[in-house]
Amino acid sequence: MNRAELDARLAELGIELQPPKAAIANYVPTVLAGGFLHISGQVAFKDGKPFALGQVGKEVSIEQAREAARMSGMAILSQLRSQLRSQLTDDLSVIRVCSVTGYVHAATEFTEHPEVINGASEVLVEVLGDKGRHSRAAVGVSSLPFRCPVEVSAVIQLG
Predict the structure, then answer these.
(1) Which CATH number fits domain 3-16+29-142: 3.30.70.20, 3.50.50.60, 3.30.1330.40, 2.60.34.30?
(2) CA distances, 11 to each of 78, 82, 89, 95, 126 (Å)
(3) Helical pair 62-86 and 3-13, crossing angle rounded to 10 deg
(4) What dihedral angle (degrees, nearest 10) is formed by the CA atoms of 8, 114, 134, 124?
(5) Which phi and psi (to 5°) does residue 101 adopt?
(6) How far apart are CA 43 and CA 52, in angstroms?
(7) How does pLDDT run across 113-150, given as a tens digit for each residue?
(8) Would you say 106 and 98 are in contact if contact means Cβ atoms under 8 Å apart?
(9) DSSP 30-50
(10) For the packed helices 62-86 and 113-128, what is the interaxial angle rounded to 10 degrees?
(11) For the segment 24-44, what is each residue's pLDDT rounded down to a tens digit?
């Protein structure tokens, strides 16, 4: 898959990737080491603001949280595309999503973490096909930056 094919696939799915977010603290958004691209936790933004603030199962519905996870997955794709452009390669056939870790800012009684993180997993597979299939952890946490409901990170093999 080259960039044109990726862009065509995104257009076919009606997905428009936002520009990758810069780091907001003392870290970098991506690290390429030993052929693996580590993508820092991505949260969902809409119109420049965090999307659907609060705890899932309390202020945020499972549907909103799943959409936030999907948007976080699209942010991962945006970071990936940016990294590939900076490496001056047009060939995306060398990628493989290895693992995804999803954090859900969940109310104590909430237990549907995997259902929420499916939003991120599904968009990666929709766009990348079998190369988007991955191992995964879906973890409930007591808080996330900006009171976001979901944060998702990934490790992607290049080459």
Answers:
(1) 3.30.1330.40
(2) 14, 17, 21, 20, 12
(3) 160
(4) 10
(5) -120, 125
(6) 11
(7) 999 999 999 999 999 999 999 999 999 999 999 999 99
(8) no
(9) EEEETTEEEEEEE--EETTEE
(10) 40
(11) 899 999 999 998 999 999 999
pTM: 0.93
